[in-house]
Design a protein that fits this description.
Layout lengths: L13 E2 L4 E2 L3 E9 L2 E8 L4 E2 L2 E3 L3 E14 L5 E4 L3 E4 L5 E5 L5 E8 L2 E3 L5 H5 L4
Antiparallel strand pairs: 1-3, 2-5, 3-4, 4-11, 6-12, 7-8, 7-9, 7-10, 7-11
Length: 129
């Protein structure tokens, strides 16, 4: 058994611009252990991930703000504090904040993450409630 106190010991907040649009920040909670990675991810308004998949799936626990999650080929779906999202293995998707609110979520990623293309402004602009 291991206990992780809100963020990995010695961890610093990391800017994640390589695979995100905008200035997104992550705080590692648990370093990758047995193929599981846990991060708190802060999306300022209008920021989002690139398209990506997870080898064994992903769980998102939205803790504050409002955002979107989108499965390839479908319309983006709204997220708000208290929501939990299960994304199955190898499902191409993106997630991020709305244009007028930040979003904070805990991301539990299972297995390898494979990053794809940027979410275009047109694709992001299609996200409406």
């Amino acid at each position: 058994m291991q206990i992780f106190h809100g963020r990995a010991d010695g961890a610093t907040s990391e800017q994640r611009n390589a695979t995100f649009t905008g200035d997104v920040w992550a705080d590692p909670i648990m370093p990758t252990t047995n193929g599981v990675t846990i991060n708190n991810v802060f999306f300022p308004p209008d920021c989002r991930t690139d398209w990506h998949t997870h080898e064994q799936g992903q769980i998102l626990l939205v803790t504050a703000g409002r955002g979107w999650v989108c499965r390839e080929g479908e319309a983006a779906r709204p997220l708000r504090a208290g929501d939990t999202v299960w994304i199955p293995a190898d499902e191409n998707h993106w997630h991020g904040a709305t244009v007028d609110s930040y979003m904070l979520h805990t991301a539990i990623s299972l297995g390898k993450t494979t990053w794809g293309d940027r979410v275009t402004p047109t694709q992001f602009g299609e996200a409406t409630e």
